[in-house]
Structures are given as C-alpha cells and as structure tokens.
Records
---
Amino acid sequence: MAVTVKASLGKTKYYTEVVAGENHLITDEPIDKGGQNKGFNPFEILATSLASCTAATLRMYIDRKEWNVENIDVEVELENFPLTKLAVFKRNISFEGADLSEEQLKRLHTIADACPVHKILLNEIQIQTKFS
C-alpha cells in the first residue's frame, strides 16, 4: 500500500500546508523555533501516526470481539536522541468504560504491536530523494 502526501511551504516561516487526497492539515514549528505554532510540528505528526494507528487497530479488534470498550486512549511520547541515532516512543494505552481481564489486556498488547505504523517503525527504513 502506497500513500502520497504533498507538503507546501511558502515564505511564511515553517507554516506548511499538507495534502493527502482530499484531506488537508497544517504543520508548523513552535514559536521558540521561529514558527507560529499554528499546527503540529513534524515530530508530533510522527507520534500522531503511531497513536492514531494503534487506537484504530485496537478498535477494529475490540469491535470484532464484541467487547464493551467505550473509549480507547493512546498517548505517545517521542524522544529523539540524534547523537546516538536513537528514537524512543513511549506508548501508554488505557481503556475507558471497560472491564477487561488480564488475558484480554495481554491480547490487546499483542494487537497494539500489530498496528501497521508500529510495524513500519520497527522495519529497516529507506528514504529515496529526487529533486525535480
């Protein structure tokens, strides 16, 4: 599965319009980095990908099992250590309105790790760049 996004940045520092199909979003940098803080910064977008994919993957499984879970909360903290080339994603998952057994929670942990974005982040990654 391939996806395509296009980011366009004009002369307004770091205010970037991103388009994917019919969907649009804005990214920006915080004020202390010279931006206007009008949208998620790129690191927040990366963490958002893992958080939203995890929540959707869990919801699909929970619905298929017909378990009663009112809300799934996924919080992702991303720490980047450029000098050691290490990035650490800390993912905290909680369930509201649910009475899940230890066995169910164990299974949901496995399902969370099966989220497609989680799998991509664990794979070898290549970035191929072309100027046109």
Note: The chain has a mean pLDDT of 96.
---
Amino acid sequence: MLILISLIQILNMKFYRDHVWPSTLEEAIVIQEKLRDQVITEDQLQEPIQYVAGVDMGFEADGTISRAAVAVLSFPDLQVIETSLAHRPTTFPYVPGFLSFREIPAVLDALEKIQTTPDIILCDGQGIAHPRRLGIASHLGLLIDMPTIGVAKSLLVGKYEELPETKGSSQPLIYKGETVGAVLRSRTGVKPLYISSGHRISLPTAIDYVLRCTPKYRLPETTRIADKLASAK
C-alpha cells in the first residue's frame, strides 16, 4: 500500500513523490500505523536556525481545489523572505485525524516552489498529538525528512490541567498515559495553542521555537502569514 521509492532532492529537502495516497479511511489508517514508528521526537536540527517556515491550507470551488501556502521567514527577526502558493484538485475528504491525506499533496507542491530551505517548518495542525501519533506535521516531516512542529488551534486528543493566563505558561497534554504534546499560552489572556513534536524535534525545543516565533499575536508569525496567503481571494 505505502511505497516510498522516488526521492527527489530539491535544495536540502527530500520529496518522496511515489508516496501512494489512500482512497479510503481504512487504507489511511494502515499508512498511519506503518509510519508512526518512524517519527523522531528528539532534536535533529541543523543549527544555527536561520529560516523558519509556516504552511497552511485554503480551499476553493466548494472545497474541490486545494490551495497550499508556504511562508519562509528569517530567524530570529521573523522577516518574510519568500512565499509560494500551489493549487491542485482535492482528492480526500475532510475527516478529523486524517487531514494530512487531504492537505499534504498540495503542500508538497508549494514547498517545491521555494528557493530558500527552511530549517524548521511549523504546521497548522497536530504532530504526534494524534490518535495514531501521525498528524500532518509528523506526516509531512517524514516525507521531506525535515524538522516539523505541530501548532494546532484546537484540541484533537488528550487532557491537561488548568493553564495560567500568562504568556509562556504550559501544561503537558496527556493521552492514554503518555505526554503527546503541550498546551501553551502564546499570549496572555487568549486561548492556548496545542503544541506537539512533528518530526526531528523534541517537545521542549518545539515549545521554545513556537514562543520565539510568536512575539505579538496568538499564532506564530509563520502561521499568520501562511494563513493570509492560503485564504486570500
């Protein structure tokens, strides 16, 4: 079912383009279960970090066309270096827990267009804070062999203790007895974010970079800029 054969080297990013995308939820579950053990939740970063990127999605024509956006920013000053957009037909339905199968094909198209290789990619979605430990950040990180972070706006799985209102406060996100992420207050007095390792990055490091990419608003600058691109008409 899952084939990872063709490896295209583009700048420093590796794209597995023969990844077979599923047509049913049953096939998607098999893929997630097979890939989950390949996810690395320890730091494997190329330091110093010079560029961070955000990826986000929008949809056109009643959801039949996927619109993927990538924004690459300098780090730590968070200035926009490069952006890209890609469109392609949407081939998988919207089902919570399976968003990577709907979104990643267009995201790969957008990543192929950029000339600046990011050191870390912040994804609008989950990493290992996922029922089968393979949210979009982990899935994408595996396919391009890059450090990725899941930065989700809503809870998918897990429970956590009450969180203080001050920026930088965090609590472990626990699912089935395991810490799968953290609930992070990125701005004082606003709703928290749900942070988890995507691939090749530890949770403490992920939290650190999310905070450093969030100087003013609730969302990281990478996500805010990519979101504007993905939702622009």
Note: Confidence is low (pLDDT under 50) at residues 1-13.
